């Protein structure tokens, strides 16, 4: 039987591995997921603003064969939660300037997650914010949903990518504190 202490130890060991020897691979998988999701929002905006599709038909690339991906608040909340967890789990591998940018991305994602939690709670309770006909986030009171979510995903993705670039090319003082092999080797 596994004790609670053993389980916590395994979790810590796994987190240590993700932020050391497996950091580069974990970042690659995470980046793929984030950029693919961001690409879906960009595709939806292109469908509306370039191709002239009506918003209900602009479902992104995956939403065309799987429309529930666009309409499910559970799916949107799950992705926002997954994104926040990923940013938290991979955070300890960053140092110096890259850590600052990663923290910026995490902070924005915390807000984005709270907005999706508010939307999900409205779906679950049937009570929409300010009596609106559909679930509405706070900032959605000021900006349309499609544009807002493209903006949110851009706000999270850009500092995350900056963090990854800085992480791969650390200053000498930052290089000394790295626990992973993500950094590009220095050539003498």
Question: What would you note in describing this structure?
Answer:
The chain is mainly alpha-helical and 188 residues long. The longest helix is centred in the middle third of the chain and has 30 residues, at 96-125. It has helices at residues 4-18, 23-49, 68-71, 73-90, 96-125, 145-168, 172-175.
What count of domains describes the coordinates? 1
- Which regions contain 5 or more consecutive residues with pLDDT less than 50? none
> Would you count the extended β strands for me?
0
Which overall shape is indicated by the principal axes computed on the Cα atoms?
A: globular
Computed CA radius of gyration, to the nearest angstrom: 19 Å
The helical percent reads 55-70%
Distance between the termini: 53 Å
* Number of helices in the DSSP assignment: 7
SS content category: mainly alpha
Largest beta-sheet details: none
Mean pLDDT: 91
Strand content: under 5%
Element-by-element helix/strand order: HHHHHHH
Transmembrane segments: 74-90
Keywords: Membrane, Transmembrane, Transmembrane helix
SSE blueprint:
Layout lengths: L3 H15 L4 H27 L18 H4 L1 H18 L5 H30 L19 H24 L3 H4 L13
Keywords: Membrane, Transmembrane, Transmembrane helix
Keywords:
0% strand, transmembrane helix, single chain, transmembrane, globular, 188 residues, membrane
